[in-house]
Design brief:
This protein has 333 residues and is an alpha+beta fold. Helix content is 47%, strand content 14%.
Length: 333
Amino acid sequence: MSDRPTSGASGFGAPADDETTEVFVGYRELLFSIVYNMLGSVSDTEDVLQETWLAWERRSRRRGAEPIDNPRAYLVRIAVNQALARQATLTNRRETYVGSWLPEPLLTHAPESTETVDAADRALRAESVSMALLVILETLSPLERAVFVLHEVFGYAHTEIAAILDRSPSAVRQLAHRAREHVHARRPRFQADPQVQRQVTERFLAAALGEDLSDLMEILAPDVTMWTDGGGKVRAAGLRPVTGRDKVVRLLAGYAGRRPGELDVRYRAVNGDPAAVVFSEDSPYVVLVLDLNTRGDQVRGIYAVTNPDKLTRIPRAEDGDGPEQGAEAGRPD
């Protein structure tokens, strides 16, 4: 892995020509990606990055301190361990969370087609932060999750991870094996073509909002599961995941009867996948991400985030983002 930093914005108010700040800024995108994959929360990730910055600044400005030969490795170690320390707080918070907990949606950019990007690079940019994968990572222990993210997503060697976590390479290999087996048993290696996923998402929304139950029955896999995260703040949100096509269709039919009168649908990339962001007036109403089966012809997972606290970072429009045709009616053409 290269030690060359990438450009970015620090957001910490230090002078732009300060070398300490420039080094941190260069690795901020990498640190954000690693920590977000470990925590699934943008706000907590930002807090960890703030703590990492403060630790980095103190170390860099300490008089008589030895130069840091590998700033990337040093910063990643700080960020990963800060994230692990925060896990206990997050675990307690989620134990008292009302209803299903889903990761905070993260607007990203996805390629137009799987043919336009190398398979390994596609996995890094899309699968690494997909909503479906993050839900599965929630079932790992904090150490297993850290090892999986560093090794499977970012390509760190077991020896590098051992140094970051202060564990032996053999212990890291065992953690990696357990995490990989757990994840792959629940999510086969598969990435749907983005164009297909966009088409299925449009068809799903048209059927759900139009209460076309027969079309919904065709779109949904028999063992489909729907997660709805309202955080106890949205009355229509289910308190636990619902599994089975018939049950999910009944749930969607109930939602359709309680939705606001006018919805505006925008299609954007969320956590690396083509997704739908539905607005009611000027506020985001729901972020909807679908997970397809390995054939790509049916929906096996529906992730609906309606908790307003998790939608505060979702803007109504992006640069060059115009209204979708048929959006005002809540139905894509």
